[in-house]
Structure formats: structure tokens, C-alpha cells
Design brief:
Blueprint: H1 11-39, H2 48-55, H3 67-73
Length: 82
């Protein structure tokens, strides 16, 4: 009596790991947005998630601050001509 220890992996087996990865980071993103609205007050500094959303021009509010307030708190880069 012999036991075959070789595994036969199919495409669905590999897609399972991808699905778990997507679900994990999706839940992490949703929780971070929820925490931004619950734990950050309007008079606090702009969060990194809000800065990222502003720089990527995402039409979604990622925190309690308005886009104009985020724009004021992001340092503007000045390009100097030589």
C-alpha cells in the first residue's frame, strides 16, 4: 500500500490565495476609513489617508476634513527653472 504525496494544484487553488489577499486588504482599507471618521476630529491634523486621496484626486471623502482644508495643509512643491 503506497500513499501518493504529490499535490495536484489547479487554478482555483491559486485564486483562493488571491481572494484572501483582496479581502484582507479591502477590510483593512474600510476599517481605516471608518477609524478616520470616528477617531479624527475636524480640528485635528489632516491624516495620511486624506493626503493620499487628495494627491490621487479620488472623488471620495476619506476623513472628516474638506478637500480645501486638505489642500491648505499639503506642502506645495515649487519647480524652479534653471
Amino acid at each position: 500500500m503506497s500513499v501518493d504525496l504529490k499535490q495536484q494544484l489547479e487554478l482555483a487553488d491559486y485564486l483562493g490565495a488571491l481572494a484572501v489577499w483582496c479581502i484582507f486588504f479591502g477590510v483593512l482599507f474600510i476599517l481605516s476609513v471608518i477609524f478616520n471618521f470616528v477617531c479624527i476630529k475636524k480640528d485635528d491634523d489632516v491624516t495620511a489617508l486624506e493626503r493620499w486621496g487628495y494627491k490621487k484626486n479620488i472623488d471620495m471623502k476619506l476623513g472628516p476634513h474638506r478637500r480645501s482644508m486638505v489642500a491648505r495643509q499639503i506642502p506645495q512643491t515649487v519647480v524652479a527653472d534653471h
